[in-house]
Design a protein that fits this description.
CATH superfamily of the largest domain: Zn peptidases
Strand order of the largest sheet: 1-2-4-3-5-8-6-7-9
Strand content: 25-35%
Largest sheet: 9 strands, mixed
Amino acid sequence: MVYLPGLKRSILSVQMPDGSFVEVPYFKLEGGSGSPVVYIHAAQHGVELTGIYTIKLLLDSVLGMNVNGTIILVPVANPLAVRWRRHFYKMELGEPYSSYHPHQMNRLWPGRADGNETERIAYSLYKNLIEQSDYVIDLHCYEQWIAPAALANGWDEVSVKLAEYSLLPFIEVYSRPNVHRGMLSYVATEAGKHSLTIEHSGQRWVFPEQAKLVHRGLMNILRYLDVIPGKPIKPKLQFTLGRDPHVDIYAPEGEWIIVTLKTAGEEVEEGEEIAKLLNMNDLEEETVKSPVKGIIYWIGSTRNNIDTRPSEEVQIVLKGEKYRIATIYSLKK
């Protein structure tokens, strides 16, 4: 990488409870007045890797641009969890995902200087980088059967506007009571900053097309904020989750293997085949068709919060289960 004037690569060195140090590299690009300050990080959770590549694409794009403000990029916010290869540091194989795990980073903000390993990393990031920022963008990853989305805090109009300019097809607008008080988006917003969470589609691997999609949205947000040159694109097609018209498709009674033929985020026509149900006992098939022209939000493994407990999920429907095969948002509003 060529280092240009205005670009600095630095390291936060965070002391752990045992006296050792963990390094968190970051990049800082300053230009013009240095304001506003936009902070973007990825990989709070150790299996959410695509955001790291998204930041690489973003850094490559803004290098050499006439930046008016400050862009702070942290590719790996939680190196302990990434090296542990699980959602959280010290999460054991088969251990259920929990908001109460002591190393669930996105429930621990703004961290603690004298806390556990993860709390200390969060504290260092917050005190050294986030506290000085005006905008905070937190990159995450859903599982691959859920489409990418931008998550905004509804009590901050700017947060909602950032979600719209992400250009992602789905946005979710949270009310204050529904956001955990230890989430970065909540803490940053309550501190007077404008926060946005972006979810790529796909965990455990790097999904390059997802990175390109989110990178496009981040560049558009930076243009909207006048941090980089160019005219921002106004979103043409975007659904607000839970509010806009959509249909849920459920499996009929029986024992089925689900064969998905489409992917989350894909556009489908009314009557188009999106999946097959294969009877486990006699191998008879049932076809699943979309009842509307629309865009798939969830498909296949779509039980609540399945992105946080994928080890429990296989593409099987058992007798007596009310199993949602897909959620499709209608293009006919």
